[in-house]
Design brief:
CATH superfamily: Flavin prenyltransferase-like
Largest sheet: 6 strands, parallel
Order of helices and strands: EHEHEEHHEHEHH
Number of helices: 7
Strand content: 15-25%
Structural class: alpha/beta
Mean pLDDT: 93
Radius of gyration: 16 Å
Strand order of the largest sheet: 3-2-1-4-5-6
CATH class: Alpha Beta
Low-confidence stretches: 175-185
CATH architecture: 3-Layer(aba) Sandwich
Distance between the termini: 38 Å
Length: about 180
């Protein structure tokens, strides 16, 4: 699978880190784009991002990459986390960075586009932008962790969102959903 992972300046860099840790970069071609604000949030929240080997990193200001054009086939683009500003620019068709251009290409080519907003609460503009993107074929997967499996750590809580994202990509999670393993009460 050929994947593009973008990240913007919303809080939640841990979701990006866990996704990168769970993708098999030996089996899949993975391209990464970090917005300037994503880099700042990563420094503030994680210190640094640990990239697996074979992940190809691209500058958000460059358009000289294969997935910025519909003529090169890629399977999916996930923006993790996705700021509401980026989500709004994508919904309006504004391609002013590599991340928003790639999202525009994935929408026009009817390829899988997954946006993981973390911001809450939403205002009406946020909700309408999400509706526009859903109507255009994107998947909006808010970073809303679940508690069914009684997560015992922040990592397990984060993984409830990352595993849903992996499901949307059609990829197995490295560990099973805990609540599927737990007997019913």
């Amino acid at each position: 699978m050929k994947l593009v992972i973008g990240s913007t300046g919303a809080s939640g860099a841990v979701y990006l880190q866990r996704l990168l840790e769970q993708l098999d970069s030996a089996q899949h071609e993975i391209h990464l784009i970090l917005s300037p604000f994503a880099r700042q949030v990563i420094r503030d929240e994680l210190g640094e991002l640990h990239l697996p080997e074979r992940v190809h990193e691209h500058n958000d200001r460059s358009m000289n990459v294969p997935f910025a054009s519909g003529s090169t086939l890629f399977d999916a683009l996930a923006i993790v986390p996705c700021s509401m500003g980026t989500l709004g620019r994508i919904a309006a068709g504004i391609s002013d960075s590599l991340i928003t251009r790639a999202a525009d290409v994935f929408l026009k080519e009817r390829r899988k586009l997954i946006l993981v907003p973390r911001e809450t609460p939403w205002n009406l503009v946020h909700a309408r932008n999400c509706c526009r993107l859903l109507e255009a074929g994107a998947v909006v997967l808010p970073a809303m962790p679940s508690f069914y499996g009684k997560p015992s750590s922040v990592t397990e809580l984060v993984d409830t969102v990352v595993h849903r994202l992996l499901d949307q990509l059609g990829l197995p999670a490295s560990t099973a959903y805990r609540w599927l393993e737990s007997p019913e009460p």
